[in-house]
Amino acid sequence: MTRSLKKGPYVDERLLKKIAGKKPLETGMIKTWSRASQISPEMVGFNFGVHNGKTHVEVLVTEDMVGHRLGEFSLTRKFVRHGGKMQKELEAKKKESEIAAAQAAKASTADTKKK
Asked: What's the whole-model pTM score?
């Protein structure tokens, strides 16, 4: 559910204090744990370190992000990949083709040096 228009957007006051009077490119990463805070137009250009539960993920705020929440750009779950027998076979074929391409490139450079 969205926040009521009567209340206005939620922007953490501490974040606004940290960016008040500072230039976006000169300041470093601003660490924050406030994932629920909405991105306001004053935040454009700043680097925020948004906590994902383990580390601070660096987020550079652009104009397209205004109105979204900071937590949307700092994922809390790590996607490893889908695996299985078929995936292993595909990776093995890919590795073999890379090795063959590297050997072919090496052979062609050796031929040009002999000439």
From this structure: 0.67
